[in-house]
Model the fold of this input.
Amino acid sequence: MFRNNYPIFYNNSLLISSNMLSLLLGPDGFSKREYIHGLALENKADMQIFSDVENLPNADNLVQQDLFAKPKVFVLEGLIGRFNQPEIIEKFIASKNHIVIEEAKLDKRLAENKQLLANEHISIKQFDLPHGIKLNQWLVGRVKFYKGNISSLAVEKLAVALGRDNAKETKVAGKIVSVEEVYNLWQADSEIRKLISYSADKEISEQDVAKLVPENLEVDVFDLTNAIADGQKQKAISLLHQFLFSQTGSDEKGGIIQLNALLSEQFRNVAMTQDFLASKKSETEILETTGWKSGRLFIMKKNASRFPAKKILEFLNKLAALDEELKTSQTPPKVLLDLIVAQLL
Done:
C-alpha cells in the first residue's frame, strides 16, 4: 500500500546527500514526510510508500530501474525488521533508486541495528518534535509558509492549546532519557490552516485561537489514569473534576460521555499491555504492534503491573455500564462517575 499528496515544507540543506539509502528516525512523522517529498522533488522522482506487511515488495524490485524510467523514491514505513539483512542493505546502498527506511526508534541493543547505524554509506537523520519554545518558533515559521500573519500572544496560546507544556518526561536515575509530546505536527499544521482561513488575510489573534482551537486534553486523562494506578484518590477526583470543568463547549452529560470514552481507551490499553506481557512479547514487538512511543510503553507497563487483570476488566465493564446509565438514569452524571472511580481506588 502506498500514499502520497503530502504538503511540502522542508529544509533544502537536508537534501544534500549522495547516499541512496536513508534512515529517518524519531517521532516527528510530519517532518519526515515533508523531507521525503522534498527528496522526490529534488530528484524529479516518483514516490511510493509501503507500510502494509501483507503486501511488501521484493527487495530486488526496489533496486531495479528501467533505462528510460524516472528515478524512484521508495519508502519503507515501519518495516525495518523485514529488510534489515546485510545483503539487502548493500543492494539498497548500491541502488539507483532512493530508498528511505522510516522508523520511530531502533533498538540499539540489537547487533543488526548497531551495524546499520554505523554504516557510513547510509544517510541517518533524526526527526524530533520541537520541544518547549521551539514549538512556538515552528508555528511562526509555518504560518509564514502559508503567507499568513499571527500575533505573538496568539502563537503562545496556540502552543499551549496544542499541549506544549504537557510533555511526558521519562527519567532514569534522575536523568531525563526521553520526552514524549502530547501533540503532533499534523495537528498543529491543521490548526494553522484553519486559523488562516478564518482570519481572511488578517493577523491571527489570541481571540481567534481561543475560538477555534480546543485544548489538547490527552494529558489530563493520562494523568488521571496514572493517579488511579498510584492509588492517589484525591488527585484522581480532582483531575476528573478539572477535566469536566474544561469542557465548556458541552453540557455535563456530554463531558462525562467524552471522559468515559477516553478512560475506557486508556484502560483497554492497560489490559492490552498486560496481555502482551503475559505472552512474553518483547518491547520492540509491542512498539511495532501498537505504534506507541517508548515513553508511553514505560508508563503502560508500570500501570499494568499495579492493577490485577481482573480488576481492569471489572472497571471496563463498569465504564460500559456507566455509558448505558447516562442515557437512562436521572442520577447526576458526576455522581455516577465519582462512585466508579472511587471503587477502583
